[in-house]
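Suppose a colleague, Dr. K., hands you the sequence of a protein chain of 180 amino acids and asks what its three-dimensional shape might be. Before reaching for any lab equipment, you can write down a predicted structure in token form. Begin with the sequence itself:
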Amino acid sequence: MTDAAQRSKVDSLPVAMMMANTGAASASEDSSDLTAAMIGGQEWRGETPVRGPQTPIVQMATSGTTGKPKAVVHPLAYAAGWQSYVELALAPGEQYWCGADPGWAYGLYTLMVGPLAAGIPSIFTWGTFKPELTWRVLSELGVSDYAAAPTALRALRGCDPGVELPALQRISTAGEPLTP
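The predicted structure, expressed as tokens, is then:
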């Protein structure tokens, strides 16, 4: 699944494509419009899929930090762990934002899977990381809990516009050592 702006990156892959209608560009004739499919699609009436904690939910590539990169299948049980992480870390009414890219495991689980499993709203921004925009989102949306990679936190420190963040209570991070 992709949006029209990212389509060229995956056009050569032998997969079925669904296009998210973002208004950024129109879907080509050989694509399906995700919005239209969701509105006009038929209810699933097939076999009940495999269920249980070891049911595969996503396959991701490792970064290769411990050897050559390899594909790793993540089971449904991962969702329970991230659900607990979000539920134990956040209180009702707080503003949660994970600025990590969902193409990486940390972003996928802290931005999407954990909050969805817990039923907790999560701020989702679009586009590449920009320190100036991040400071603005943290301030204007009153983010109380921010999750990001150490690289992003270092970039924020190097671009401190002096914005007040009275709502920010907690920062969480993963994936690499955090600069003291």
